[in-house]
Amino acid sequence: MRLHHVQVSCPRGGEDAARRFWAEGLGLVEVEKPVALRARGGAWFRAYDDAGAVGAEVHVGVEDAFAPARKAHPALLLDSVAALEAATTRLEALGFEVDLTERHTFDGHERVHARDGHGNRVELLAVEEHPR
């Protein structure tokens, strides 16, 4: 078994904020939703590895009674600490909240938590290059 995708929610009309966070901020590629699902709104994003295989997939779905996920969250493993730093810098430059307080609280990894444009928590982590 392996994970196919994770879904986070957004309010109706929240797709542009999702694109800023997932595509512009984190570098995922927006992909077309299946025709049968397009009328629901939302947007889908993928990250590809160097060989072109899907490494992560995030679906942002419209939820009419939207409330942000403040604790539950997807966690994305980035390729390196440098990639984590670059993502953190991009997200902050775009005005997204990035929390560095738990940077060294998960053995063997460096991590940060960010809030997407709707307040959903997202964890970004990378394997430590020089474990303490």
From TrEMBL:
One Pfam family hit: Glyoxalase
Matching InterPro entries: Glyas_Bleomycin-R_OHBP_Dase, Glyas_Fos-R_dOase_dom, VOC_core
Note the PROSITE patterns from the entry: VOC (PS51819)
UniProt domain VOC: residue ranges:
2-127
Annotated coiled-coil segments of the chain: none
Taxonomy, superkingdom:
Bacteria
Q: What is this protein called?
A: Glyoxalase-like domain protein
Organism for this UniProt entry: Nocardioides dokdonensis FR1436
